[in-house]
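Tokens for chain A. Residues wanted.
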């Protein structure tokens, strides 16, 4: 990989997981669930939550933030919970799939969930805390 410039976070994670062999012992279903979570976070969760969070501190656009919160509460968070069979006793996204400890999916989701928590959006979703 020397000389290659890789700047997209999902590609960097993919490279690191491949090089380290971190997921080598996982089943194809377990790997698929991790990638599903990473892609969903990057394409849906991150844009909805982080852009709204920035609107609370930069442009002060309350209407945008309210609409984003509605999307998060009605669509984004419920799908995350359903995808991973999350409950308040399971600390990691892929715990229900038999993977112990945090994975790349947890680390990728930490930033947008931290922003959602700061805006008070996780009150209805203790499994995402």
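Reply:
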């Amino acid at each position: 990989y020397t000389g290659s410039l890789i700047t997209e976070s999902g590609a960097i994670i993919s490279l690191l997981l491949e090089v380290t062999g971190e997921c080598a012992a996982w089943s194809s279903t377990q790997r698929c669930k991790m990638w599903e979570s990473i892609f969903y976070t990057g394409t849906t969760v991150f844009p909805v939550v982080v852009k709204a969070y920035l609107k609370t501190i930069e442009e002060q656009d309350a209407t945008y933030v309210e609409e984003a919160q509605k999307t998060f509460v009605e669509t984004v968070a419920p799908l995350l919970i359903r995808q991973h069979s999350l409950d308040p006793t399971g600390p990691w996204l892929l715990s229900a799939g038999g993977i112990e400890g945090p994975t790349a999916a947890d680390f990728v989701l930490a930033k947008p969930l931290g922003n959602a928590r700061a805006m008070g959006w996780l009150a209805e979703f203790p499994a995402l805390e």
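The first helix runs from residue 9 to 20. The two ends are 36 Å apart (CA to CA).
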